[in-house]
Design brief:
Helix content is 29%, strand content 21%. The protein has 3 helices and 4 strands; from the N terminus they run βαββαβα. It has a 4-stranded antiparallel beta sheet, covered by helices on one side. The longest helix is centred in the middle third of the chain and has 18 residues, at 61-78.
């Protein structure tokens, strides 16, 4: 399953976007069975442009993005509620930059009782468990 973000732009005189429920119904109603759209969400206040999130079943990323573009173009063309709106792009979002930003904003983790700093994914040290100890 892929999450494709479709960014929308309002042209001059565009009406406000319909409600989330209405958008979901319009998109799912225009999707064809072979496009395999499973779920739709609307982020109307995303900046700089509103985003439709389409969850699609596909064998490849390129197929998911192509299906999302086709569905969005059909909705924008056929639904009067979207008069004045256009599709800027439909792509699977890259998560690595978001993760890097979250990690850089979080700073060092909380201090443990022994004074060491724990990172965002757990304490530093041996990843396999307790430190090796010599047997006597």
């Amino acid at each position: 399953m892929y999450l494709v973000h479709a960014r929308l732009a309002a042209l001059g005189g565009a009406a406000p976007l319909p409600s989330r429920t209405r958008v979901r119904a319009l998109v799912l109603g225009r999707a064809r069975p072979e496009e395999r759209v499973e779920h739709v969400s609307l982020h109307a206040h995303a900046l700089p442009h509103p985003v439709l999130g389409l969850y699609l079943l596909a064998d490849r990323l390129s197929e998911a993005e192509a299906a999302a573009r086709a569905v969005c173009r059909r909705v924008l063309r056929d639904c009067p509620e979207f008069d004045g709106w256009s599709l800027l792009e439909a792509q699977v979002p890259l998560m690595a930059p978001l993760l890097e930003q979250d990690l850089s904003l979080s700073g060092p983790g909380p201090r443990a009782l022994d004074g060491t700093v724990q990172g965002p994914f757990g304490p530093p040290g041996n990843p396999s468990g307790a430190p090796e100890r010599r047997r006597k």
